[in-house]
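Whiteboard transcription, Tuesday session. T.W. wrote the structure tokens on the left side:
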């Protein structure tokens, strides 16, 4: 659990440079926390700014590095540009270009690698040949504290709710939000959502520990994965009450519902929480984590297809 005081300090570092995103009521029991409305289209700006602004000038002198398929890359590139230093992004070769193009517009330098090399950079917390400050997209506690500011806002803006549902990619968003919510509303349940084709946390919760899964990449590129990062299973055991694997058809349905009813564009990961909430009966806050989706993918979804 990230200490509540650390999350509050992260909010002070962020100031007014991240949007206090609206909490919108979808129906009588579902609210949407619209992190897709952040300046980079994703919650990742919170964690990236929190980590970079906490670093000393000496730590930043060589620039910053992250490993990301897109959204964290944009957050780190934004934060590095503000700090006046270079940013390198280790990205899998098949990462969505809607996200990588945005990284380049922000001044980030992309290092395309295989999915295995990208994963190894996250495990090793470094990439050979690049010596900048490594900002881990998941396991960095300063990043998770920044993510936790989402949880502070939810608790402050809504008096009564039963469950917060978050997409689970690496676990940094869930850990941050859950740390804040559990500290302030201990009875609230934390539920995670992953695409069923890449759901290592749901498999681990069923098995009682990390286990191998059959991984298939999908249009839900911002959540799920091949495996759990080494430290995140312990955090999940402490904070997560339930983990759900969501069929891809239901993710696409949730994207269409967000567009039609909330007038919001969400990427696959951003729609996961709503897809999971539709099977529940309690009062849920769904974190719509991002809206950075390739136009071709969005077009297929809006036409009723599952890409």
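and on the right, the sequence the group agreed on:
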């Amino acid at each position: 659990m990230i200490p509540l005081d650390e999350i509050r300090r992260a909010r002070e570092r962020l100031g007014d440079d991240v949007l206090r995103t609206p909490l919108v009521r979808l129906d009588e029991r579902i609210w949407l926390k619209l992190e897709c409305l952040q300046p980079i289209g994703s919650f990742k700006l919170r964690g990236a700014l929190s980590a970079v602004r906490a670093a000393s000038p000496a730590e930043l002198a060589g620039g910053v590095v992250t490993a990301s398929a897109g959204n964290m890359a944009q957050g780190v590139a934004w934060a590095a540009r503000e700090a006046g230093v270079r940013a390198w992004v280790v990205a899998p070769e098949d990462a969505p270009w809607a996200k990588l193009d945005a990284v380049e517009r922000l001044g980030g330098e992309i290092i395309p690698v295989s999915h295995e090399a990208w994963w190894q950079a996250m495990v090793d917390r470094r990439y050979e040949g690049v010596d900048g400050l490594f900002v881990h997209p998941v396991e960095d506690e300063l990043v998770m504290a920044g993510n936790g500011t989402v949880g502070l806002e939810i608790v402050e803006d809504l008096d009564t709710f039963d469950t917060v549902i978050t997409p689970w990619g690496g676990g940094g968003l869930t850990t941050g939000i859950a740390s804040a919510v559990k500290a302030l509303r201990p009875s609230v349940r934390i539920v995670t959502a992953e695409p069923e084709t890449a759901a290592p946390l749901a498999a681990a919760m069923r098995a009682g520990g990390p286990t191998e899964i059959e991984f298939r990449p999908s249009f839900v590129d911002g959540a799920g994965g091949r495996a759990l990062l080494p430290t995140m299973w312990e955090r999940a055991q402490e904070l997560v009450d339930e983990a759900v694997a969501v069929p891809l058809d239901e993710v696409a349905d949730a994207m269409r519902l967000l567009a039609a009813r909330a007038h919001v564009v969400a990427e696959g990961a951003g729609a996961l929480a709503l897809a999971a909430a539709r099977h529940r009966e309690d009062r849920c806050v769904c974190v719509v984590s991002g809206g950075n989706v390739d136009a071709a993918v969005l077009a297929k979804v809006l036409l009723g297809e599952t890409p």
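Someone added at the bottom: The domain at 45-134 is CATH 3.40.50.1100 (Rossmann fold).
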